[in-house]
Amino acid sequence: MITASLIIWLATAVGLGFATLLVSGIKAKNFIAFLIAAAALGLINAFIRPALWLLTAPLSVVTFGLFTLVINAFMIMLAAALVPGFEVKSFGSAFFGAIIMAIIGAIGFIAVPLLTGADINWYSYEYHSETQHY
């Protein structure tokens, strides 16, 4: 469980790193500010984002999930507001950063089962759970 959380945080940090490199409106003054921003974003994503997803679920359904990018952009802007040395100039910059982070996060989400040895095949999960005898 801790390994999976660490891999997901690493994917978030890598995504944030790519966002700072590719989006001109997202800047970290130094590496320490970047690491603190990645940690803050991880905590925000763990505690605040689930509540926002629940509250905006109908809007996410109507937009076929694209509204989650708006939520992620707001989470990036919140991290920038909380962390000195990490700044986001506009909502557009945060939105493009959210797109980049979503792509990197999807890669990380796929990598977690591959790197931890978890089973990602539902048929295999059902087969193994049916063959276990207690």
TrEMBL record:
PANTHER family: SLR0284 PROTEIN. InterPro entries: Phage_holin_4_2. This is Phage holin family protein. The chain crosses the membrane at residues 6-24, 31-55, 61-83, 95-115. It holds the Pfam family Phage_holin_4_2. The keyword Cell division does not apply. The keyword Nucleotide-binding does not apply. Keywords: Membrane, Transmembrane, Transmembrane helix.
